[in-house]
Specification:
It contains 13 helices and 15 strands. By secondary structure, it is an alpha/beta fold. The protein folds into two domains: 25-142 and 278-357, Response regulator (Rossmann fold, 3-Layer(aba) Sandwich), CATH 3.40.50; 145-271, 3-Layer(aba) Sandwich (Rossmann fold), CATH 3.40.50. The strands form three sheets. The chain has a seven-stranded mixed beta sheet, with helices on both faces. The protein has a five-stranded parallel beta sheet with strand order 2-1-3-4-5, sandwiched between helices. A three-stranded antiparallel beta sheet has the order 11-12-13, with no helix packed on it.
Length: 379
């Protein structure tokens, strides 16, 4: 009997020690982002948003008493490098994989994370990413299947356009957007007057803009990465194109405004995330970001920040650290900003890993994003 009691005491001590060890454990996250190359603007904002959120959460005791640590790896804006970096990150068994931001890089890395059973939270917006049945992949922003119908409706209902020129970047991000928006234009009977493919990192858009002028469309839909968006806006202004310029977040983001200067004025677009949103929590985030990094973040900075608070909310819902169960708990989860202010706006994740939350239609006026309409959650 004494032996049995002693064994029970020893077992209880071991279990208690294990519980204490878990509560004081380190939550290891791995981030693979575009820290150099053509996507450096995207990756740097994403990384800084992640670091800011982790700093805040750790200062308040971490997640369930566990401190967060993150390692950052550079994909060099190259899908092949991204795949190698993700494999290396997964070898260290992180709690969650963050990134990449470019859809092409997400496409080649997502199968690796899924095979490892690790939740992957990304910035990529290509429609196909969450349509392949991957139960471990989650977005931090709208996919093209959610945003493009809103853009096409605006062009049809508000601009009354009968013809449009489409300028898109020849990568997975651009192809996906071009395919979805083209189908939406067809639904409204809007003619595609010019369909122009451009290259990532392209510096000269003179020939493309000349083709746009020749086509004389009622509106121009621009779907390029941030730096290229700034370059084409400058060229459109130089060649005197007066048709309305419409796009998505990558046309009217903060970095584009800074690079394009006056040429950005008048550009309009649908954005799921903007630091100019008339939301108090978003304004507070912007102030904290500027104080820490001395520049105004674009939507990618918000994405990185939200990714960490997604992890926090889902883990606290579980009440334990369980990397294998995290994805299942994110599916169908609604996070209220009133309960978790770091999420900034109420958000719901569906069974595909896509998000539903309010969005905004903006126009660049005198170098600033002006909110024209607030679009509510779909459901």
């Amino acid at each position: 009997m004494k032996s049995g009691i002693l064994a029970g005491v020893v077992l209880a001590t071991i279990l208690t020690g294990a519980a204490f060890a878990q509560s004081g454990a380190t939550i290891k996250l791995a981030d693979v982002a575009e820290l150099s190359g053509g996507g450096a603007t995207v990756g740097t904002n994403w990384k800084n948003g992640i670091d800011l959120a982790i700093e805040e959460i750790n200062a308040k005791g971490g997640i369930l008493g566990n401190r967060i640590e993150v390692t950052h790896a550079d994909s060099q804006s190259n899908p092949g490098v991204a795949r190698a970096q993700v494999q290396k990150a997964l070898d260290n068994e992180p709690y969650v994989l963050l990134g990449p931001g470019y859809s092409g890089s997400v496409k080649v890395t997502a199968p690796l994370a899924a095979e490892a059973g690790i939740t992957q939270i990304v910035g990529g917006e290509a429609a196909e990413l969450t349509q392949a049945g991957n139960k471990f992949l989650f977005r931090t922003s709208f996919g093209q299947q959610s945003s493009m119908p809103k853009v096409a409706k605006y062009i049809n209902d508000e601009l009354k356009a009968k013809s449009v020129a489409i300028v898109w970047v020849n990568n997975d991000f651009g192809k996906g957007g071009r395919d979805v928006i083209t189908k939406e234009f067809a639904r409204y009977g809007i003619k595609v007057a010019a369909d122009l493919s451009t290259e990532a990192g392209q510096a000269d858009f003179a020939a493309d803009v000349s083709k746009i002028k020749a086509a004389a469309p009622d509106a121009v839909f621009i779907y390029l990465n941030e730096e290229e968006s700034a370059r084409i806006l400058k060229e459109l202004k130089r060649q005197g194109v007066t048709a309305p310029l419409i796009g998505e977040t990558t046309l009217v983001g903060q970095k584009v405004v800074e690079l394009a200067g006056e040429a950005a004025n008048g550009a309009r677009g649908h954005v799921g995330l903007t630091t100019d949103a008339p939301v108090d929590l978003v304004k507070a985030f912007r102030e904290k970001f500027v104080k820490k990094y001395n520049y105004i973040p674009d939507h990618n900075g918000i994405k990185g920040y939200l990714a960490i608070y997604m992890i926090k909310a889902a883990t606290e819902k579980m009440g334990k650290l369980d990397a294998k169960a995290l994805a299942a708990n994110l599916h169908g989860l609604t996070i209220k900003a009133a309960n978790e202010p770091g999420i900034l706006m109420d958000v719901t994740f569906d069974q595909n890993g896509d998000i539903d939350r309010q969005g905004f239609l903006v126009e660049i006026v005198e170098g600033k994003q002006i909110i024209k309409q607030v679009l509510p959650k779909l459901n």
